[in-house]
């Protein structure tokens, strides 16, 4: 290949296709101007191919560079970030393609393309994305190999086949390196994608939040159970504990424990079972949760128990938190307890916190609460039961689009006027009433239910499973869970949101194409489930195969003794073996030349040893004549061999391989 | 075989130092192709054609093309015969086995196309009547390079009708000396004997068609053709007709080499003559010959 040689039409087309395909997965991260630039560049190159366009002059190309850099400079703050770097790379691809004329330019474009594919992985690691990027890679390989094919226009399918074969050959080595090469920290880093914009539960509950979440079918986490799986109405996944109420919003006050000057050990524990805060009940569930990134630290659990990963700890409120925000997919295993452990201690400061309500407003509710409290003989459990039947017997209605309760007495408004709402309203009002009567109570935010898949013992929880419920403190029994929503709309807890809102409201109004909506269609549902299972496996065993997982896996495999040595030996040995097998296969394939071609290549090797190599375009007879001119000693046998050979090759007479071999042995 | 070699030997005495061109000219006729010889005046074009006709035993006529030549001057005219009171067709020079069209690019395009049509169809239509041309029928045209004044260059589509285009070029000093001495050239034409008759030539032409072409060779030819289509320094690539022309010329060459199968060298030998006038080079300094030295013979 000559560096200055021109790029063939086919290769140019491949590279144009690759540009458009590679820009697709990063379009969200890259400024729109760069995407436009990419489309312009692709269009312009096609115009040039069709003979309708001219090469852009230098000043114009220079101008485009300035536009690209300018748009990156204006779009990103801080300037140095992952997105801005990727944008510059994408702009480089688009602009280089625009001026690509020689093979050398084309190689640069191909390599930028490979790099761009790699960067797309930084933004998303789903199975679909991986498959798509693999496709992009194949296109780039096809483009690259097209550069090295000097002649012959190869059809699209055969280029693609060739690229596929190349990629397949790389698979064994890739797997080996993936499994064995130690994971090292980065030598340098740019700030990773911003996670603040993600949807999910927050640590403050205004009713609007959950209504918003209910509109999304985005996956929150998957839990895989070993052994028993709790029933749907027992699946309360705790995430946040909201115990501060300002009249409108419920907030989480864990952090204020420290403000109260309490030692950390009073409210945080890494070994909850030894903390003495609660005792576990009998029924235990063992499960493993793989959660999607949320950008927040809290994790999802069915209750509090069991040692979990090192980097997480339990709050006294029985919720689990990681030591830093979850910015990438996280896998943790739980030894959980359902319905929940029994708390055994309740210091005064905690009682105070859990009976706090604003001093003003909601007079009617307060009076009502006291009335009910007295009627039930000041027994919190009886009172809770009365409140639930209050919800049940009055005309309360479960809806995702309730009226706005923004009065200073929002609880009164809801309980005695509107009577329409969803979990956040019911839980909030319930806790408010309990607190008004002096019973410690709190709102728990999290997810309820989830879709159970027998295949794999898996539960998938999506954003629309978001839920809020209540807990009250009963001396001697601990925190007890009450779900007022269940009183109003039992379907919500038994069968999920879709059943609860019935036909009156649209389920998932914002995502008409979500596969989840069409799960009644048999085949589609099967496809969806199969795909989600594959996705889960992919996330679990490939994306999540990080440093710790790798070490555990390899220690199991190789044994603990001299572990690092063993790893190094296996790595070296494995890589060499794979390369050996690959080269042997290639060698074998070369020997699948026709017998005639094999003989001739042996002849060429022999001649090469004597210093004769055919020039490009030098045919067999001319080559033989040149040899005989320069080397009398072999002139005769070489000519004899050559005459027989060209007869066999071009006259296609009966090929006399034996005769040719004999002649070949003659010199 | 022998006769053809004798022809070539005899021709090389007339046109000194141009063995390769003579062989190509004979090869062209064996492949039933028309020949275009392009060179400056006085390089022996006409002499070569006269000699060819003589040794091959072909009846030949010569038309000197000028700008006022009319199509009828080539195809013939219908005249009224007073004695029989009928119209009689008087055939033109095109009704000969070998037509020498001298300086074809001096004639007007209209006349040129009349001749070229006859070359393709091997018949002429006069007054609505089809008149078949004799067999064998060859046109050997000569032309001055187009940068000479007063010429009408042949369009590409018509250049395609010629199987080969040859250039004679200046003779080497030794040959030129012989010419000046009077030992070669037109003066020797009278002494030339005839080695073939038309029927024999047709038989040889049929033998040429039988020459075997193998798959490996076709692959090589395909590579050459594809390259002309992909290389950016040609305006347009070779047409399938050009490919066919290349094959028949290569067959004739192989036959002349005494083989009944074609090898890459045969293709290479005729390549420039067959392909040169069908390709237009966009970039200066890129010659058709370069194609041969950049294309692998073995896939």
TrEMBL record, chain B:
Residues 31-172 form the AAA+ ATPase domain. The keyword ATP-binding applies. CDD domains: AAA (cd00009). Keywords: ATP-binding, Nucleotide-binding. GO terms for molecular function: ATP binding; ATP hydrolysis activity. The keyword Transferase does not apply. InterPro entries: AAA+_ATPase (IPR003593), ATPase_AAA-3 (IPR011703), CbbQ/NirQ/NorQ/GpvN (IPR050764), ChlI/MoxR_AAA_lid (IPR041628), P-loop_NTPase (IPR027417). Coiled coil: none annotated. Gene3D superfamilies: Magnesium chelatase subunit I, C-Terminal domain, P-loop containing nucleotide triphosphate hydrolases. Belongs to the MoxR family. This is ATPase AAA. It comes from Endozoicomonas numazuensis.
């Amino acid at each position: 290949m000559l560096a200055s040689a021109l790029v063939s039409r086919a290769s140019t087309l491949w590279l144009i296709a690759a540009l458009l395909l590679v820009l697709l997965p990063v379009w969200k991260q890259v400024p729109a101007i760069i995407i436009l630039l990419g489309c312009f560049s692709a269009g312009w190159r096609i115009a040039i191919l069709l003979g309708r366009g001219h090469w852009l002059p230098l000043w114009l190309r220079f101008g485009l560079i300035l536009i690209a850099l300018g748009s990156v400079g204006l779009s990103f703050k801080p300037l140095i970030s992952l997105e801005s770097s990727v944008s510059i790379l994408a702009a480089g691809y688009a602009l280089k393609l625009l001026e690509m004329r020689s093979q050398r330019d084309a190689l640069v474009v191909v390599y930028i393309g490979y790099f761009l594919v790699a960067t797309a992985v930084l933004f998303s690691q789903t199975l679909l994305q991986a498959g798509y990027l693999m496709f992009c890679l194949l296109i780039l390989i096809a483009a690259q190999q097209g550069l090295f094919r000097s002649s012959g226009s190869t059809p699209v399918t055969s280029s693609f086949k060739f690229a596929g074969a190349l990629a397949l050959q790389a698979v064994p080595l890739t797997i080996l390196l993936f499994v064995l090469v130690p994971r090292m920290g980065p030598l340098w880093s740019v700030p990773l994608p911003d996670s603040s914009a993600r949807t999910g539960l927050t640590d403050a509950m205004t009713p609007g939040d959950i209504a918003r979440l209910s509109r999304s079918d985005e996956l929150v986490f998957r839990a895989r159970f070993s052994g028993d799986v709790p029933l749907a109405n027992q699946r309360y996944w705790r995430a946040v504990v909201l115990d501060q109420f300002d009249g409108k919003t419920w907030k989480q006050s864990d952090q204020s424990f420290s403000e109260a000057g309490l030692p950390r050990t009073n409210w945080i524990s890494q070994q909850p079972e030894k903390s003495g805060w609660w005792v576990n009940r009998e029924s235990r569930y063992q499960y493993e949760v793989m959660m999607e990134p949320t950008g927040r630290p809290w994790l999802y659990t069915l209750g509090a128990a069991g040692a979990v990963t090192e980097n997480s700890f339990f709050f006294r409120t029985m919720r689990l938190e990681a030591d830093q925000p979850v910015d990438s997919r996280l896998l943790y295993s739980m030894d959980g307890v359902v319905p929940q452990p029994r708390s055994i201690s309740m210091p005064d400061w905690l009682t105070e916190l859990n009976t706090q309500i604003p001093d003003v407003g909601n007079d009617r509710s307060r009076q009502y609460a006291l009335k009910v409290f007295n009627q039930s003989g000041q027994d919190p459990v009886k009172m809770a039961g009365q409140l639930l039947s209050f919800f049940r017997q009055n005309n309360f209605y479960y809806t995702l689009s309730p009226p706005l309760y923004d009065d200073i007495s929002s609880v009164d408004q809801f309980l005695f006027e509107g009577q329409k709402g969803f979990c956040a309203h019911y839980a909030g009002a319930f806790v408010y009433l309990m607190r008004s009567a002096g019973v410690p109570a709190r709102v728990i935010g999290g997810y309820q239910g989830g879709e159970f898949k027998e295949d794999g013992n898996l539960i998938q929880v999506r954003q629309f499973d978001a839920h809020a419920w209540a807990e009250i403190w009963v001396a001697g029994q601990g925190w007890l869970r009450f779900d007022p929503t269940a009183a109003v709309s039992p379907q919500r807890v038994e069968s999920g949101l879709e059943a609860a809102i019935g036909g009156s409201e649209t389920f998932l109004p914002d995502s008409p194409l979500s596969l989840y909506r069409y799960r009644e269609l048999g085949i589609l549902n099967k496809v969806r489930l199969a795909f989600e299972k594959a996705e889960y496996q992919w996330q679990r065993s490939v994306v999540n195969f990080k440093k710790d997982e790798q070490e555990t896996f390899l220690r199991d495999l190789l044994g603990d003794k001299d572990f690092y040595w063993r790893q190094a030996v296996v790595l070296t040995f494995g890589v060499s073996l794979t390369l050996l097998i690959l080269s042997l296969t290639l060698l074998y394939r070369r020997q699948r030349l026709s017998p005639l071609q094999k003989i001739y290549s042996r002849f060429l090797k022999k001649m090469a040893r004597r210093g004769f190599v055919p020039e490009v375009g030098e045919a067999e007879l001319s080559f033989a004549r040149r040899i005989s001119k320069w080397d009398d000693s072999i002139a005769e046998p070489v000519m004899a061999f050559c005459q027989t050979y060209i007869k066999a090759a071009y006259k296609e007479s009966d090929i006399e391989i034996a005769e040719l071999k004999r002649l070949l042995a003659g010199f | 075989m022998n006769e053809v070699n004798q022809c070539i030997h005899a021709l090389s005495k007339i046109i000194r130092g141009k063995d390769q061109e003579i062989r190509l000219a004979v090869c062209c006729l064996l492949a039933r192709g028309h020949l275009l010889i392009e060179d400056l005046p006085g390089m022996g074009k006409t002499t070569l054609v006269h000699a060819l006709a003589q040794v091959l035993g072909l009846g030949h006529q010569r038309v000197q093309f000028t700008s006022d030549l009319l199509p009828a001057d080539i195809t013939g005219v219908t005249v009224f015969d007073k004695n029989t009171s009928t119209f009689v067709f008087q055939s033109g020079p095109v009704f000969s086995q070998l037509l020498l069209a001298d300086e074809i690019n001096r004639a007007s395009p209209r006349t040129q196309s009349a001749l070229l049509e006859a070359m393709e169809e091997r018949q002429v239509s006069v007054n609505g009547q089809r008149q078949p041309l004799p067999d064998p029928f060859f046109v050997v045209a000569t032309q001055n390079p187009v940068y000479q004044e007063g010429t009408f260059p042949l369009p590409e589509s018509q250049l395609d009708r010629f199987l080969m285009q040859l250039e004679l070029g200046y003779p080497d000093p030794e040959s030129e000396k012989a010419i000046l001495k009077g030992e070669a050239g037109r003066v020797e034409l009278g002494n030339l004997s005839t080695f073939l008759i038309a029927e024999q030539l047709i038989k040889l032409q049929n033998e040429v068609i039988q020459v075997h072409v193998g798959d490996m060779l076709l692959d090589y030819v395909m590579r050459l053709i594809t390259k002309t289509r992909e290389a950016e320094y040609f305006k347009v690539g070779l047409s399938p007709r050009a490919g066919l022309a290349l094959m028949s010329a290569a067959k004739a060459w192989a036959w002349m080499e005494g083989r009944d199968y074609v090898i890459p060298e045969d293709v290479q030998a005729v390549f420039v003559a067959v392909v040169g006038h069908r390709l237009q080079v966009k970039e200066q300094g890129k010659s058709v010959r370069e194609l041969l030295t950049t294309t692998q013979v073995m896939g």
